[in-house]
């Protein structure tokens, strides 16, 4: 071996410590990094392995490296055999290591060495404990699955099934793949009959039955040891969720045997016994496909050989049979659904639509549906049956019969009150469609009669007819009809009844108020709003309060100021923070326009405490703006200070900058500087450059060297607070280029002095520009 100078230290290390893995790996890493010849790396590995032949880590990394270098080489390359020999040598020492066996078997499998891979897998299974066999078998099974070696594959799966009988499904799949159908069916029966064994792939027993039936149906001539029909009929009785597929499989079995009449009998029997749409659809589709195939085969035979009279008759018979089957499909499907659930209202309505041109059948279907459907168990809207029944008579201009149906409908029992209310509404709308407005008004009055004995609306033990008087849908229709056809007193009475029954919604209250306002009954509208306020709580009552206060202000302005103040105070008593902002601004605006300025200011101040935290900043801005316009900017100082105390840091920065700017404009330079000093404690110089730039410009315009030094000192202090490593980093940044670090504090002082000089130059430039100076600005002392 030839060594480089860089290898000497590593060679000495491994000579001193021949049994140290760290020393050898340091040497290997060095060779890997700096040596372009991989043979030298292999030699180091070989030397290390010679010293420690039982080291799993050395062997694993060595073999992994050798395999990695073979990626772009042909499998016929001699190096592949060298790696195979290396694996053999490794397994001589590490035959209990499953990872080495796995890599070796996969490596051989990649080389397509079938026999050698099989022998390696056998050796691995003999060497490893049985608890580790599960790691070798996937490779063994992959070998027989990847190559066409059925004899070996059958034997391998037979051995595997003894170890893991729960994987019999894989065995069955392989037998199906190689064409051993009879043995495959026996494995499926074993899996189905054994309740302790479940599908490896999460298949249900139904799915396994389906696969077995498909296997039997597609290979009827290859099945010798199994009686097919008893097995399938047993599955039909046992697995009711898959009867459609099982019936189809049984019919397909007879089709494969050429017994077409028996297959047709099976399809007809299946269609009359299934209980689900899925099963029916499966059987019907298979049945229709079967008939179409027979017709197409016969027509193809006619094209090739021609047809005689008997063949023509047979073709016409088959076409007629297929057409009859297709015509029967909708009714057969509907019958299946109704047999499954006789309370399915949509299916009854669909059945009515199937008898489009048969009035007698439609009437009989409606009658049967109403008689069979139980309202408590109805799937769908039971009242829709009555409504559609009445509409059927209406479409045929039989209004008297339609009214008779509605009379029966309102006496029927329903599950919910809304269903009966819908029936009443449809009846009333029918009267309106035929210009019987008077009858419609009488009907709604009849429906909305309040009984002497009050019933609980949600009591399921009471008939829905007794609870109908609390239906908001009917009362809303009543108010609409009264507004359109009735009198003012009738409409008012309707709304009052709704409120008295305590079924009103905020929108009903607002509609009542709008109605009264349109008729110039403003005080009654306000009383209606007050009733609504008494009915509801926050936050539902917010819309009523807002409209009430807005309309009251628009109506009276400042003429009833004390009453308005009482209303606002009553509104604000329990108002949630989410809705406080709008009300406080409206209250303050009222005081500004019609009241006292000091009261308005007090309301703004209350508003800053009552609103949500995310709205407080906006509220303070409005408060400051209004106080400045009423009492002058000097009066806003207390507001600024309060805002600084209560607002979060991100918003305090903006407030402080505005506050300082205001003091600067007032000539209060010291106050402005104090504000900047206070705000600086929450402004990181790395992320809040705007603040520090503003303060710097302020000092350029109004400060001196001492104030600039103080600003820079505060800036360093704040930055040190946010970053404990600031001083170290700053010292590194100011190191002279010569490489002599010097004193860190002196370097920092030099940086500060440089910045002070820069500020002085900026000041001098500003003075030379003939810009007018503030009377409070301070000149630099030279």
Automatic annotation (TrEMBL):
Residues 375-756 form the Pre-mRNA-splicing factor Syf1/CRNKL1-like C-terminal HAT-repeats domain. SMART domains: HAT. Pfam families: HAT_Syf1_CNRKL1_C (PF23231), HAT_Syf1_CNRKL1_N (PF23233), HAT_Syf1_M (PF23220). Residues 168-373 form the Pre-mRNA-splicing factor SYF1 central HAT repeats domain. The keyword Nucleus applies. It comes from the Eukaryota. Residues 6-166 form the Pre-mRNA-splicing factor Syf1-like N-terminal HAT-repeats domain. The keyword Hydrolase does not apply. Keywords: mRNA processing, mRNA splicing, Nucleus, Repeat, Spliceosome. Signal peptide: none annotated. GO terms for cellular component: post-mRNA release spliceosomal complex; Prp19 complex; U2-type catalytic step 2 spliceosome. One of its GO terms (biological process) is generation of catalytic spliceosome for first transesterification step. It is found in: Nucleus. Belongs to the crooked-neck family. This is Pre-mRNA-splicing factor SYF1.
């Amino acid at each position: 071996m030839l060594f480089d100078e860089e290898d000497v230290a590593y060679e000495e290390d491994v000579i001193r410590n021949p049994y140290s893995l760290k020393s050898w790996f340091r040497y290997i890493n060095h060779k890997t990094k700096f040596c372009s010849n991989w043979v030298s790396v292999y030699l180091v590995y070989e030397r290390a392995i010679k010293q420690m032949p039982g080291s799993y880590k050395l062997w694993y990394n060595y073999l992994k490296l050798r395999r990695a270098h073979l990626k772009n080489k042909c499998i016929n390359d001699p190096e592949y055999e060298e790696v195979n020999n290396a694996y053999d040598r490794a397994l001589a020492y590490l035959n209990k290591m499953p990872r080495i066996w796995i890599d070796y078997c996969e490596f051989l499998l990649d080389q397509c060495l079938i026999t050698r891979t099989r022998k390696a897998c056998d050796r691995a299974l003999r060497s490893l404990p049985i608890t580790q066999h599960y790691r070798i078998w996937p490779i063994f099974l992959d070998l027989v699955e990847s190559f066409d070696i059925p004899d070996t594959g059958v034997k391998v799966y037979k051995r595997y099934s003894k170890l893991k009988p729960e994987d019999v499904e894989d065995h069955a799949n392989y037998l199906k793949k190689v064409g051993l159908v009879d043995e495959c069916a026996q494995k499926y029966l074993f899996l189905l009959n054994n309740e302790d064994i479940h599908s490896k792939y999460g298949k249900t027993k139904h799915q396994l039955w389906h696969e077995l039936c498909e296997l039997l149906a597609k290979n009827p001539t290859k099945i010798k040891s199994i009686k097919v029909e008893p097995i399938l009929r047993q599955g039909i009785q046992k697995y009711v969720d898959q009867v459609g597929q099982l019936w189809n499989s049984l019919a397909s079995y007879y089709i494969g045997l050429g017994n077409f009449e028996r297959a047709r009998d099976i399809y007809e029997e299946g269609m009359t016994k299934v209980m689900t749409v899925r099963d029916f659809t499966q059987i019907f589709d298979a049945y229709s496909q079967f008939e179409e195939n027979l017709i197409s085969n016969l027509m193809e035979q006619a094209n090739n050989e021609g047809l005689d009279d008997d063949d023509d008759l047979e073709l016409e018979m088959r076409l007629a049979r297929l057409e009859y089957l297709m015509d029967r499909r909708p009714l057969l499907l509907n019958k299946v659904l109704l047999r499954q659930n006789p309370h399915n209202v949509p299916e009854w309505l669909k059945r009515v639509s199937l008898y489009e041109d048969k009035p007698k059948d439609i009437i009989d279907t409606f009658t049967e549906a109403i008689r069979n459907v139980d309202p408590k168990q109805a799937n769908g809207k039971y009242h829709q049956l009555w409504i559609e029944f009445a509409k059927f008579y209406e479409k045929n201009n039989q209004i008297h019969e339609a009214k008779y149906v509605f009379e029966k409908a309102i006496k029927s029992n329903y599950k919910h009150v809304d269903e009966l209310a819908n029936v009443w509404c449809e009846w009333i709308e029918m009267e309106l469609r035929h210009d019987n407005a008077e009858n419609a008004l009488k009907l709604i009055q009849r429906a909305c009669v309040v009984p002497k004995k009050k019933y609980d609306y949600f009591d399921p033990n009471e008939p829905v007819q007794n609870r109908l008087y609390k239906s908001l849908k009917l009362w809303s229709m009543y108010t609409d009809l009264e507004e359109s056809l009735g009198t003012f007193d009738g409409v008012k009475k309707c709304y009052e009844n709704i409120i008295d029954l305590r079924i009103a919604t905020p929108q009903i209250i607002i509609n009542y108020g709008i109605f009264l306002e349109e008729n110039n009954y403003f005080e009654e509208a306000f009383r209606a709003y007050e009733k609504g306020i008494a009915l509801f709580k926050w936050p539902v009552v917010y819309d009523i309060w807002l409209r009430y206060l807005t309309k009251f202000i628009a109506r009276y302005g400042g003429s009833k100021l004390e009453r308005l103040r009482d209303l606002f105070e009553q509104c604000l008593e329990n108002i949630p923070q989410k809705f406080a902002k709008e009300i406080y601004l409206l209250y303050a605006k009222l005081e500004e326009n019609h009241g006292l300025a000091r009261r308005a200011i007090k309301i703004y101040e209350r508003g800053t405490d009552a609103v949500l935290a995310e709205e407080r900043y906006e509220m303070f801005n409005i408060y400051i703006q209004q106080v400045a316009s009423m009492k002058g900017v000097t009066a806003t100082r207390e507001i600024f200070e309060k805002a600084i105390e209560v607002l979060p840091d991100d918003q305090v920065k903006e407030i402080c900058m505005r506050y300082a700017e205001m003091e600067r404009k007032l000539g209060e330079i010291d106050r402005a500087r104090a504000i900047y000093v206070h705000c600086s404690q929450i402004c990181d110089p790395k992320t809040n450059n705007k603040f520090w730039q503003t303060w710097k410009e302020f000092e350029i315009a109004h400060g001196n060297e001492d104030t600039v030094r103080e600003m820079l000192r505060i800036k360093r202090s704040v930055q040190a607070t946010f970053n404990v490593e600031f001083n170290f980093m700053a010292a590194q940044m100011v190191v002279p280029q010569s490489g002599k670090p010097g004193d860190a504090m002196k370097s920092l002082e030099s940086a500060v002095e440089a910045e002070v000089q820069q500020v002085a130059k900026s000041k001098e430039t500003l003075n030379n520009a003939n810009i007018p100076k503030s009377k409070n600005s301070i000149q630099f002392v030279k």
